[in-house]
Design brief:
This protein has 376 residues and is α/β, with parallel strands linked by helices. The protein contains twelve helices and 13 strands.
Length: 376
Amino acid sequence: GHRRLADIALGLTLRAYDFGRYRTGEAAPKPKGPVTVLVDDPDAARAAMASVAAVAEGVCFTRDLVNEPANVLTTSDFATRLSDMRKLGLKVEVLEESDLTKLGMRALLGVGQGSESPSKVVVMEWPGGKKGEAPFAFVGKGVCFDTGGISIKPAQGMEEMTMDMGGAGVVAGLMRTLALRKAKANVVGLVGLVENMPDGRAQRPGDIVASMKGDTIEVINTDAEGRLVLADVLWYAQDRFKPKGMIDLATLTGAIVIALGHEHAGVFSNDDTLAGALLKAAGAEGEGAWRMPMGPAYDELIKSRLADMKNTGGRPGGSITAAQFLRRFVRDETPWCHIDIAGVTLLSKDSTLAPKGATGWGVMTLDRLVRDMLEG
């Protein structure tokens, strides 16, 4: 009974969410009254609700990040908000452009070179498990605003590209949840923060960049930038932490929206066990996820005449070729899933658990995955 009460409390909290901080006067959000529930054992009820309160806070933190306008949530502001989570017990490190240059993250740096906002990578560590045990890594794409760069997007709908940091937002919300509920697992979250803008210094179609791994990439389309960011952060995560498994999240392709609509995220993986655990967790939490195919035939589409690969394979199978691109930056021994959340991060109408806008999709699923797979 107390578990059901906790679920009700979670649902009420998520549905009552309102990002109204910029509305004034009559349009300003109205205070919502408390909900009073009578229980036979208040202490047991509080204990049951403690963990879901952590999840609710993580989801709402993600929603806040995704809903923020890009003139507020710059790369620097994002990094500051993540650094503030040190008070929860997280170890947070911010890698600046000088650090990224030394590490050889030229694919990531190329995306942000046309912006006044400095590119960054933020590393968040939660050491809640056994000392010395390899962590599980979560990696998020954090493009704080995406104009498309020189391959500029149409003006219509561009205002929604504030949500292109949705993957980083989910990783941030997950790490907040794990810290709040004192998860008994070693987890590291890494986010690549950039802004993709056109100016005289911006990356051009036809440029060739070298990744941290050393592979060279021909940039066919500067609007296929998220995979360049993830390529370097994925490689860095493996190089530094030697994780037991790794999941990345990104609002990566419009193609996944064409394939799955706004009901399911697309899941790509090199490991059936990890993919199965992820899909099971998503099902338990009521967050739609669907596994997509991968294979050598799709790999052929990203071959380049001039470099080791190109950053887009054209329209056919666009979400799959993006995943094949990322697969090249995952070591064979690393169980990995890529989740394309482009269709589920931001909704144009109210849903059962969220008002119009950012959903926070993924925080509940990944928290469940950590519980089931890492905490037993």
